[in-house]
Write a structure and sequence with these properties.
The protein is built from no helices and 6 strands. It is mainly beta.
Amino acid sequence: MNIKGKLLEKHDTQNVTDTFRKREFIVEYAENPQYPEFLKFELIQSNCEQLDDISEGAEISVTFNLKGRKWTDKQGKVVYFNSLQAWRVEAGTPDSAQDGAADDQRWIDQSPPSDDDLPF
């Protein structure tokens, strides 16, 4: 999946465990400008650095996977979690490239993470 929007907030990378880290960021997605949506994404592992050189307020394109998890607590109650796991963040939008010049685009990591080292 892919969306274009404005980077509103980028948070610091969190070391969840010794082997797992994530970084959250908020995108203003305005398919209908009268009713913008505020979407929280996460980058994991080595993808966390993708936001380092992108400023808040910049137009970005985010390629992501919709993730869902099922978890059963100690009392047997089933809980479901959803997340938007980004794996590529591009400063600007693909439409901003002129004459196909790659200089106008910032492709950081074009492949999804190979490990699924989630803490839950």
